[in-house]
Amino acid sequence: MSKGKLQKFAEFDAFENTLDYNTDTKGHWHEIFGNENPIVLELACGKGDYTVGLAKRNPGINYVGVDIKGNRLWRGAKTATDEGLSNVRFLRIQIDFIEKYFAENEVSHIWITFPDPQPAKARKRLTSSRFLAHYRTICKSDAQIHLKTDSDLFYESTLETIQEEGLTLLENIQNVYTQPCAAELKEIQTFYENMWLKEGRTIKFLRFGLNP
Ligand SMILES: C[S@@+](CC[C@H](N)C(=O)[O-])C[C@H]1O[C@@H](n2cnc3c(N)ncnc32)[C@H](O)[C@@H]1O
């Protein structure tokens, strides 16, 4: 492992806005934030671009960026610290075990940004039925999933899951940069999104209800 990566792992724990799998967070998020504001997750957040970008726009909402890679989360934790954002936390865990870290009804909405498309392992996709079932155990009944992706495979397979499970599709944008949509979809760009845009890929967005 590179020296830079090791240093970021060490520094990650020192930030006041970071938590990991050792922390007893389940059912304690409102205490952690010190208020009763809604809690919104960004899953597979990487450097936490949406966590930070949305937190700046919506100070009355608490955002938790979730990813397994501490060196990537380091970037978001540093930016949120430098900018004095009190409504941001970063949680370093495997999303597969998300219900160990959030209680029933503790989460209002979920963002998923540029998840790995997992071409060979459909059940590992973060919008597969298996993962949606995990999210239902921690989300409020009216929770919505916001998905931003460059991957046709991920986009199509999510649409299939929405149909199979009888979920309500609330927004379906095939090209974020040519179609009208919320400003935050164009104005906040993630690290991976920037790479894919340089390659000329089309960025898609889906918003759907988590429960039928
Ligand atoms: C392609 S990157 C996207 C990162 C960021 N959202 C962006 O757009 O720049 C996918 C991220 O998902 C994380 N990831 C994938 N599967 C995960 C899992 N089961 N639990 C936690 N993190 C996961 C990876 O560590 C990686 O940072």
Write up what this structure looks like.
It contains eight helices and eight strands. The protein has helices at about 5-15, 30-35, 50-55, 70-80, 130-135, 150-165, 185, 190-200; strands spanning about 20, 40-45, 60-65, 90, 110-115, 145-150, 170-175, 205-210. The chain has an eight-stranded mixed β-sheet with strand order 1-4-3-2-5-6-8-7, with helices on both faces. The radius of gyration is 16 Å and the shape is globular. The site of S-adenosylmethionine has 19 residues, from α8.
Protein traits:
single chain, 212 residues, Rossmann fold, 8-stranded mixed sheet, 19% strand, globular, binds S-adenosylmethionine
**In order across it, which strands form the biggest sheet?**
1-4-3-2-5-6-8-7
Q: And the CATH topology?
A: Rossmann fold
Bound molecules: S-adenosylmethionine
- Describe the largest sheet: 8 strands, mixed
Can you give me a brief rundown of this structure?
The protein is an alpha/beta fold. Helices cover 34% and strands 19% of the residues. An 8-stranded mixed beta sheet has the order 1-4-3-2-5-6-8-7, sandwiched between helices.
List the helices and strands and how they pair.
Layout: H1 3-14, E1 18-20, H2 29-33, E2 39-43, H3 49-57, E3 62-67, H4 70-82, E4 88-92, E5 109-113, H5 129-136, E6 144-149, H6 152-164, E7 169-173, H7 183-187, H8 191-198, E8 204-209
Parallel strand pairs: 1-4, 2-3, 2-5, 3-4, 5-6
Antiparallel strand pairs: 6-8, 7-8
Helix pairs in contact: 1-4
Bound molecules: S-adenosylmethionine.
